Amino acid sequence: MNEMTKIAVQTTLKDWETDQEVRWCPGCGDYAILKAVQRTLPELGADPANTVFVSGIGCSSRFPYYVESYGFHTIHGRAPAFATGIKLANPELDVWLVTGDGDGMSIGGNHTMHVLRRNVNLQILLFNNEIYGLTKGQFSPTSREGTNSPTSPLGSVDRPALPCAFALGSGARFIARAYDVSKNLPGVLKAAHAHKGAAFVEIFQNCIVYNKDRFDDFVAKGVADQNQLWLTDGEPMLFGSEKSGGVKGIALDMETLTLKVVDVVDGDWQSAGVIVHNVKNRALAHMLVEMPFGPFPMALGVIYDDARPSYEEVLLGQDEQARKGKDANLAKLLGKGQTWTVSGTAADPV
Amino acid sequence: MATLVEGPDALTGGKDSPTPEAVVVRFAGDSGDGMQLTGGQFTLSTALAGNDLATFPDFPAEIRAPQGTLFGVSAFQINFGSTEIDTAGDQPDVLVAMNPAALKTNVGALKAGGLIIADTGEFNKRNLEKAKYEVNPLEDGSLEKWQLLAFDISALTLEAVKPFGLGNKEALRCKNMWTLGLALWMFDRDRQPLVDWLNAKFAKNPVLAQANIAALNAGHAYGETAELSGPLKQYHIAPVESEPGLYRTVTGAEAISLGLVAGAQLADLHMFFGGYPITPASAILHNLARLKEYGVTTFQAEDEIAAIASAIGASYAGQLGVTSSSGPGIALKGEAMGLAIMTELPLVIVNSQRGGPSTGLPTKTEQSDLYQAVYGRNGDAPMPVIAARSASDCFEVAIEACRIAVEYMTPVMLLTDGYIANAAEPWKVPDPESFKPFPVTFLEQKNGPDGELLPFARDEKGARPWIKPGTPGLMHRIGGIEKNPGTGNIDYSPASHQIMTDARKAKVGGVANSIPLQEVNHGETSGKLVVVGWGSTYGPIYQAVRRARRKGLDVSHVHVRHIWPMPSNLGDLLRGYDKVLVPEMNTGQFKTVLRDQFLIDAQPLNKTSGQPFTIAEIEAAIVDALGGHAGGEVDADKTQLPSIKSDNP
User: Fold this and answer.
1) ∠ CA(B570), CA(B252), CA(B279), 5° rounding?
2) According to the model, what pLDDT value does residue B237 have?
3) Which of A251, B74, B215, B472 is disulfide-compatible with A49, CB 3.0–4.6 A?
4) Is residue B647 within 8 angstroms of chain A, CB to CB?
5) B469: preceding bond cis by omega (within 30 degrees)
6) How confident is the model at residue B635, as a pLDDT?
7) Which DSSP symbol is given to A152?
8) What is the maximal distance between C-alpha atoms in chain B?
9) Pairing verdict, β A51-55 and A70-73
């Protein structure tokens, strides 16, 4: 629930831990995400009794069992549809949807699309580890080309899907990206929670068993600085430092209408043409989510945030309007239409 | 029904025919001719005249099949009379054929000596070719065994609506009202309700209203003045003796919608209906979408799976989740049904069955999803299944489905079929107060003996508590993984799975304790033969048994509403008869369940032509069974309406 209609509840991280043994592999990125969520919820003033975690199937989808709130571990890929029903039945509930790259982008791609386009007011956390973990290491829809796996011993040939580009294409009004052990993850979660409508957060997550250190090219110590572009609304898109080979920025190539990396000398980003991030600029969001890693840094943080009325608000508002001034008398409803009365044997139209 | 005064002695028997007890009329035309509308309005006028009735709309899967083609024929049959009517009638007494294709595909069903009314205006070379007639059947004597009344309805309609200045196409659209006017004259009906209806329907276009009324009046006047000495006669069918009260007509889809609304109210719950368009189930979603003020939310989902998933989500959040579909959509929902069974959440799943497998026959009826309903899920996944036997029965059955779902915390499947969904019949409007409420109580406090929360503790019925998210202090997690019998926490241990599997089975089996014992619908509680039916075969079975008993045959009728679990006395009851015959519009599914559950020698009578059974077919099987011959297949060639091959979507 993003409007602060509920009085903030005082909790601590401990209040959000269940008595259940966490069953992820030791060292799994999921632990860090769980802690980040459990640390963030008290800061949001969230009420465990009013919070529901809904998930599909996969490693990530075990998440609800470990959060001391209401939780529904559903079926593969369909969590968005369950969450939609929950929100329509009780819009006051604060719903977090936890999914993965297989659950949300493959078997459940259809539902991910529709929950976003409808703009149901909830937070979607898509843990992207670029592999099927629970089924033991097959390539996933986000695996990079050439991924060796039990089902692709010669290397996968499928081109990977880009979750944030998919979400934006589906009509999402909030797109953010972070990674499991990032200190910025709680801030991203808070922004997602503050957004009214469907908030889509892709979280790169390290599967230490089947896809170990897959994201090291931008999360490893030593490279993070020059390979991570943390976006802040109203701030220039700067990354790197003097230590890591110079401060750089993202600018627009006016001839090709594409993004480019420019050097920033003496902090003068204005003259280098560095773009100031605007979370309401949809065209810019498209460029940022498509920005190829390698020539460009990885865009992280809140990429896009431009709220529209939520689905349940509009739909239930319409229903409410339809109910106005209507008499919901069941007996009258049953006897509606063209009726007749039988008294003895003769029928008289009513 | 006593309708079919057999042989050519009813409506069709010439000058000396008595006033018939019942008449079967079939309107057939191109799918663009408005035959369903004509039939629907004729139905209403029949109901207002106080006759009992049953209808059978039969239309192609295509929205607008190419004009004049055999597969584009749309028909509407109505059986009405001054006695009880339970089926749409075996053979029509009157066939209204609006074009050659309609004649060709329907005349075979017409009773010998029956009356054909044909529009000569449509029997042109082009339409005859499309219907694959080499010569005009109206002129070559091939219709000799029937009475033929052929005249240019098209031209007469154009003449009647001339003053209104409509284009030719629009003017010809009034043909169905002209025909309806003639039919109203034939059966001595009041035109005023139709006039009122047309005025309301075309309120925004008074010219069209006036034109249609003029066509209606012209058809009526034609009957009155033009053909007094011909085969066209006026008949008066006396009103049926029915229980006094307020009546209306209702289709199965309407009655289910109303029953669900009533069921949710009796449970004191808001209803959430998640649906995805599919023939012939969509009408329920359409109906409920207009009933928001009765505490209904409707959600058109992105697919069948999302439809049931959203309904389960709503049930989880404390509303009564309902979803609806037909065979292929039900198959897609299977995994989610398993989750509702596993998490023990209430849910009603309405299955309007149609011909299968796969896309099958979208607009034709069948009862072939019984296996899917009873057995069609992974794992040991028991679920109550109940079936409606007629359009009006759908109301009570929908309430019963809601009751079982909330009292036992279980998904329930309600089986109906394409025939019931579309067919209309008179319905004595029930008093909602006459149904016993079954209000739901949500858990508000921890329920364990030591003050702990046990979401999977069970009451005396085996049901777990329903806990709404948002309730302080009762946070817990549920899911599709096997769970601990009390806490519901993940627990794959051998003992847990055994206990929980047994508990789910016992709970659903226990539903039998809350349902009435099986009664004999007609006949004796033992004897030589019992005909056991379920669902929409009720009408033809009931009438066939009645006829056979009149001939002195020892046969009874048992019709089962509760398919799973079955009434606890059903096995013993059926063992009281020497033979058991099970007519079904499938290849013998209920027969198999009966054999399995009771080890009885149930014999099948199967029909899968997409058409309901006729009374005669079942009566013949009864005679055979009592002559030492038990059941068999119904010869497809002898079915009531010849099936027309078409490319279904």
Assistant:
1) 110
2) 87
3) B472
4) no
5) no
6) 52
7) B
8) 90
9) parallel
Tell me, what's the pLDDT at B506?
98
SS3 content of chain B, % helix, strand, coil (to 5): 40, 20, 45
Q: Is there a contact between B504 and B380 (Cβ–Cβ < 8 Å)?
A: yes
Helix spans in B173-251 (H): 175-186, 192-201, 206-225
Q: Which of residues 392-431 of B touch A (CB under 8 A)?
A: 429-431
Which residue has tokens 């797109």?
A175
ipTM of this complex prediction, to 2 decimal places: 0.96
Give the Cα separation of B264 and B438 in Å (integer).
9
State how far the Cα of B619 lies from the Cα of B557, in Å rounded to an integer.
Answer: 12
- Those residues whose C-beta lies under 8 Å from the C-beta of residue B403, and which sit 6 or more positions away, are B263, B266, B267, B438
Q: Which residues contact B119 (CB under 8 A, 6 or more apart)?
A: B97, B98, B99, B150, B151, B152, B153, B154, B175, B179
Percent of chain B having pLDDT more than 70?
Answer: 93
Q: pLDDT tens for residues A290-340?
A: 999 999 999 999 999 999 999 999 999 999 999 998 888 999 999 987 788
Of A82, A323, A347, the CB nearest to B313: A82
- Interface membership of B453 toward A (CB under 8 Å): no
Using pLDDT thresholds of 50, 70 and 90, give the confidence band for residue A349.
Answer: low
Q: Which of B520, B598, B561, B570 is nearest to B385 (CA)?
A: B561
Helical (H) or strand (E) element with B351: strand B347-353
pTM score of the predicted model: 0.91
Structure tokens at A83: 């969450």
- Per DSSP, B588 falls in state S
Interface of B with A in 313-352 (CB under 8 A): 313-319, 321, 335-336, 338-339, 343
C-beta atoms surrounding A113 within 10 Å: 18
What is residue A210's three-state secondary structure?
coil
CA distance B366 to A153: 48
C-beta separation of A41 from A16 below 8 A: yes
Task: Give the amino acid at A201.
Answer: V
Nearest to B640 by CA among B615, B604, B605: B615
Structure tokens at B320: 């009564």
